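Students often ask what a holo structure prediction actually looks like on paper. The answer is less mysterious than it sounds. You provide the chain, you provide the ligand, and the output is a string of C-alpha cells encoding the 3D arrangement of the protein together with S-adenosylmethionine.
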Amino acid sequence: MKFDIITIFPQILDSYLSESILGRAQKQKLVEIKTHNLRDFVKDKYKKIDDKPYGGGAGMAFKIEPLIKAIQSITKSYKPKTESLAIIFTPAGKQFDNKTAAQFAKKYDNLILICGRYEGIDARLEKVAKNLKLKIENFSIGPYVLTGGELPAMVLIDSISRQIPGVLGKDESIEEKRLGVGVPVYTRPETFVCGGKKYNVPKVLLSGNHKEIEKWRLSKRVKN
Ligand code: SAM
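The corresponding C-alpha cells follow.
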C-alpha cells in the first residue's frame, strides 16, 4: 500500500510516521508513505497556494491548480492496473471507521490523502478529479472541527496500515482478532497502593485457569 499525502505542513507528519510500528512497516516495505508539499506545485515566487473564497467571507481556501498538479504528479508514477483512491478530508465527510480501514487495506494499492487548511479546498476538485478518472471521496474522522487534515491523514494511515498483514507483530494481531478491542489489561504489581487505597488485579487473571480467563476476557470485549 502506498500513501501519498498532500499537505502544506509535511514536517507535522514526519516524526509520527517514522516511529514505532509504522516506521518498522516502512522499513519492511509493507507500506510506503510519501509527503508532497503543495507549495512545490506553484510557480510564483510567493508559493501562494490559497486565495479568498468567491462570494466573500473571512478566511482563505486552497486553490485548485496546485492540487491538480500535485495529484497528476503523484498518479503518473502509479503502476498500471493498480487500485487507487483520493481522499479529501473535511469535517462534513463520511465518518471513517475501522470497517472502512479494513476494506481499504484489502482493496487499494494507492491512497492520496489531501489535507485541507483554513476554509478548506476549492469545491471543483472532486469534479475535476473524477473527469481525470480518479476515484475521489470525502471523509471525516469525527464530529469535531480540526485546524487541518494532517491529523486525519495520520489517523487513516495508522488504522489502515495495522490491517495490512505483517504490519502488527504476530502476538498483537492474534490477540485483537481473537478477542476484539476494549479488553482490560493489567500488569505487575498485583496490588497497587495509592492514597492509602489498594487496587487489585482481578482474581480470575491470577487463577491460572485458562478457560475462565478466556471467558472473562470475551465477556469484556468490544466487537469491531
Ligand atoms: N469550514 C471548513 C469546512 O467546513 O470544511 C472547515 C475547514 S477546517 C478548519 C480545515 C481543514 O481541516 C479541512 O479542510 C479538513 O481538511 C480538516 N478537517 C477538520 N476537521 C476535520 C475532521 N473532523 N475530519 C477530517 N478532516 C478535518
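Helices lie at 10-18, 20-27, 64-75, 98-107, 125-131, 150-161, 170-179, 210-220.
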